[in-house]
Each structure stands twice: as structure tokens, then as C-alpha cells.
Amino acid sequence: MTTTTEQQQDQSAAVYLPHPRLVSPEGGRAKPWVSSMAEYEALYKESIAEPEQFWTRMATETLTWDRPFRHVTHGSLKNGDVAWFPDGRLNVAYNCVDRWALADPDRVAFVYEADEPGKATRVTYKELQEQVCSLANVLAAFGLRKGETVAIYMPMIPEAAVAMLACARLGLVHTVVFAGFSSASLAERVADARARVVITADEGLRGGRPIRTKAIVDEALQSCPEVEHVLVFRRTGSEGVPFSAPRDVWWHEAVAAQRPYCPPVEVSAEDPLFLLYTSGSTGKPKGVVHTSGGYLLGAALTLKYVFDIHEGDVFCCTADIGWITGHSYVVYGPLALGATSVIFESVPTYPDASRYWRLVEEHRITQFYTAPTAIRALRRHGDDFVTRCDLSSLRVIGSVGEPINPDAWTWYSEVVGGGRCAVVDTYWQTETGSHVITPLPGATPAKPGSATFPFFGVELAILDPTSGAELEGNDVSGVLAIKRPWPSMARTIAGDHKRFLDTYLKPYPGYYFAGDGASRDADGYYWIRGRVDDVINVSGHRMSTAEVESALICHPAVAESAVVGAPDEVTGQSICAFVTLKDSYTATDALTAELVKEVRTRIGPIATPKTLILVDELPKTRSGKIIRRILRKVVAGEADQLGDLSTLSDQSILEVLVNKVTAAL
Ligand code: PRX
């Protein structure tokens, strides 16, 4: 099988110039914000050479400050004390909602495409302001005050965004937990964040199937006695949803009792806006902390330049609000620009594989943003599902979350984009807050599979993984690092600044270490090669191998487990688990299925191992350490390239291992 990396290298020569329709638009449409490489280079150069001047201009033009900042940056990557606009004060909800509600109340903030096809509704900025204010008053009435954390566990409905913005209005910190996570995962996050209030819905609905959202919250809260209130939005209105007053409060009843205006609470630019849990290389997820000023600026600016947002545009990002992409590009970025954002509750194949494309046609979407895994899956259904829809409104189509293989890129560009759109392959992470490597649609000649060049203010480096030396010039490969702070970077991990330093800033002192391998080709283009740590990327979702291993070990039959990522044509990588059993257990298909289920129940469906192989022994060093490198090679079909095996204590296990994997995959 050809790997993504090989395909990338083979095709790295193909270059797609920005389409003339984008660079010199007709029909009175505005020119792109950046319409040539020379313009990009000039702005980029300014952002690096004159950062104070550049960021002062951007932050002043883009955001409304209650108290203007006098200092632009503070601290360094070396010290881990980064702050941006530290003496500036603002309110995020005011910036995202009130500015537009006051100037243009009927402008549409959200188009809500419900799970049920044909049931789209709209929320204007004025309506959004009232909803956010009423809910903020409910939260204030619960006794919540600036700096406290609220957990949000909701389906993809506008009320999830309303909940985030209501927190921001009061200076509360939200932590949105993806509603596909299990009750145990939710409980772990609620407890770690010390949330006293959880906002949720009675049920979710995806592809016509109800999801028992509130029941999952109730299970989780059995181990979170500190939660005082659960605010429940009625999404489906099903009978029999568990509800226990006075802890549980219906959203519609609570907001009806509140005044639909609530003064925004002024916060420091450095006050936290949210925590978002993401997987790391240990079993415990980390609560990445983002701030109010720098984060909002990063989300707004990247959206403006990378998707070339102009007045009247309808932007659609299909990511769930439970991930950083949903935070930055469904909620904060679009609203900070006063744009219209589509909230998509359903799945791309419900009722059929045309759902996304009908959505584009119906709402005249101008920019569309999704993940390679969705692109690859939809491509398998055939071009008809796409071409039967009118996609002429599209100008920019984006990809995020994992490397996009050039053939999926080309299909996206040709079939979805009709050869008339810019494809932006955006590289970034939960921790970076917003795009860090990305093309600009009116300027950057694209190479399929490359995220191309750094965004403004992002100074990249490729480091030798062993020595940490910076590899100068082009045509180099190593690990990706960033050389200076940027406004939307995470500031810390909630309750564990040491872990923040150890994970990102200490591995290569003076640099932010991204955890990805990367190359800079002969033309200076960046190519992301995937994670270099124990994190795997399934359908653009980050999973820690240690987290899956911890779930497996909870089953009484499991003696040991090792989890690795296997290449997968649709999901990028899939989870492949190797398990040894305790002596009293026998390997059966039923037990294998039970172990898969164990992971699914403990973490959530996204962590389901695609392959689970019961083995007698795992490859180990003489000191008993599992050699995951061997397992990774075997599942990638590279058993002939195992490299140095001198540390392997028992070489005889290899043949059995290879045979088992071949039979299973
Ligand atoms: O490995 C990179 C991959 O996704 C990781 C970040 O995952 P997460 O924090 O969940 O955020 C996903 C959405 C931003 C990165 O370390 N990744 C993300 N975008 C790309 C990518 N890999 C290659 N190309 C991309 N465009």
C-alpha cells in the first residue's frame, strides 16, 4: 500500500495557482484580503520584523476594547510566561454579538441545519444577543461569578454556542465536552475543571437516531457531587428523560424568567475564555487554557484571511463544537467578524451522501470547511452526489485535522470546488488556537498535500529531533517547532503548568514543540508528516494510545495492552490494540468483542479499536518495556523494515505477531 507520505512526495511537483475568479472577482465582489504572494510576503515580513506595529494594528482593527492595551506582548517561550495585550480589557461576547446586534440587528448569525433535513432555521444577531443575555442572567442567578468554570455537554445546536457566549459575557470559563464522549470521560473532565454547573440537552439527534445526552450526564454526575445545577435544553422533548429538580433546571423555564439584557463583564485580555480537553501522551487528558484577547484575535484574523471572509458570506465549518475547530470556526471566528455561520447537527450521509452539498446549495454557502476523512468517505459514494447540486456559490474550501492525501485534495478541488475554488489545507492544533500553517486563497500557489506557508506572526522551525539543532535552508525534515509566541497560543494546562512546560516548551528550549514531524521542501513549502509522539489521529480526532490502553486494562481479562495507529484509507489512522490475557482467560471472538466494547463504553465511540488482536506476548526489551515501534511497523505492513532488533528480548515472537496481524487487517 502506498502511504500518505509517499503519495505526498510523488506529487509534490503539482502546483495549483489561485483561480482568476478569486484573484480578480467580477460582479462587484471585493478583491481578496491578500491577492498576491508579494502581498502575503510583505505582511508576513512585517508581522515578524515589526510585531508590535503589526499586532497593534490587527488587534485594534479587529476587536473592540473596553480599555485599549498599551503593551502588546509579554514573556517568552523559554520562560513559559507568554501574555498578549496584558493591560487591555474587553468582553468576548460583546465583540462577537453586541457589535453586530447594535449595528445590523437583522443580520443572520447562525443558520441552524437540524438533523432532520429541510428544517433549517436562522438566528439573527439581535436574537442571539437576547438569548445570550437571558442565559447569562440564569448563570448569574446560579451564583456563578467571573473565573468559575461551566461544563457544556450538548449536541450541535445554536444553544451550544449561546451557552459558550453566555459564559463569556460573565467572564466565566467554559469547557465544552464533545457529546460523543462517555459518562466516565465527561465525569473526568467535569471534576478536573471543577465545574459547579453543567449545561446539556435532553437528547441529541444524529442521522435520525436519538442520543441519550441527559442520561449520560446523570451517570457522569454520580461521581461529581460538587455539581450543583444542570441546565437542560429541550431538544427532542422525548418522554422519560431523567430529570431531578431542584438540581436540574429546564433551560426554557429558566430563561423565560430572566431579563433579555445582561451587561457584559469586562475582563483582562489574559483572563481565560475556555478550557478544552485534548489527548496527550499520557492517559490523562489535559485542559488546554485559552485566553480572551489573543485567542479571539487569532480565531478572527485567520478566518478572515484564510477563508477570505467578506460581508454577506455564509461560512460553514462542519466540525463539532466539542473540538477546537468548532470553537474557533463555528463560533468565535465567524461571530467576531460579524459573519453568518452554519451550525450543522447531522451527519454527511443522512439521508444520503448529498447532505453537505444540498446544504451548500440551499444556503448559498461561500466557504466550506471539513476534514479529510469526510472528503475521502464521501468520495467513495461517487461524484453524482456532488454534481447533482449547485455549488457555484463556493469560493474557498478548507481541510483540517490530518494530512490530506493529494488524490483526496484533487477530488475536493475538482469535484466539490469545480476547479474554481481555492483549497486551503490548514494545519493547526487545539493548543495553537487558530491556523498556523495555511495557504491564503487569493495568493498562495497550492501543492496538494502541503499546508504551504506560515500564517502571520508564526515563525516556524524544523529541528533535528535528536540534537534539537535548527535545520536551516530548504529540503529538510525533522520535527516542527515554532520560534516565538503568537496571540492565540495556549497559555497553560489547567491546574498543571509544569505539564504545559514539559510537553510543549521544555523538549526544545526556546521553541514551542508541536509534536508533529514535518519537512520543508525545495520551494520552502511545509509538509506535515504526522505525530511523532504516542498520539494517533483517527478521522481528525486526537487519541492518546495511553488512554485506550488504560481503558483496556480496566477489563479483568487483560494482562497487558499496547495500542498503535494503523494506516486507514478513510479515517487516516485507525486504532489497533494488542492485548495479552491473564492466565485464567481464553482467547475467543466473544472476548475480543467484549474488550472492544470496554473501550467504547469507557471513552466513547470515537475510541473504538478497529482491530483488536489477542497475542501471547508483546515485543519487549530485556528490561520489559514494550517496543511499540515494532507494532507500528507491523501494522503498517512494513515488517520487513523493523530496523535494529537487538533490544528485543525474544525474537521468536515476531513471526507469530506478523501472521496474526496479516490475518486480522
Ligand atoms: O497532527 C496534527 C493534525 O492534528 C493534530 C492536532 O489535533 P487537534 O488538536 O485535535 O486539532 C485538530 C484540528 C486543528 C496536529 O498535531 N493536523 C491538524 N491539521 C492538520 C494536521 N496534520 C496535517 N495537516 C493538517 N492540515
TrEMBL record:
AMP-binding enzyme C-terminal domain segment(s): 547-625
One of the Pfam families matching this protein, by short name: AMP-binding_C
Family: Belongs to the ATP-dependent AMP-binding enzyme family.
Gene that this polypeptide is encoded by: ACS2_1
Classification via NCBIfam families: Ac_CoA_lig_AcsA, PRK00174.1
Entry keyword set: ATP-binding, Ligase, Nucleotide-binding
A GO molecular-function annotation: AMP binding
Catalysis: reaction(s): acetate + ATP + CoA = acetyl-CoA + AMP + diphosphate
EC annotation from Swiss-Prot or TrEMBL: 6.2.1.1
Domain named AMP-dependent synthetase/ligase: residues: 98-486
Domain Acetyl-coenzyme A synthetase N-terminal: 40-96
Record-level GO BP terms: acetyl-CoA biosynthetic process from acetate
GO cellular component term of the entry, any: cytosol
Coiled coil: none
Protein's name according to its UniProt entry: Acetyl-coenzyme A synthetase
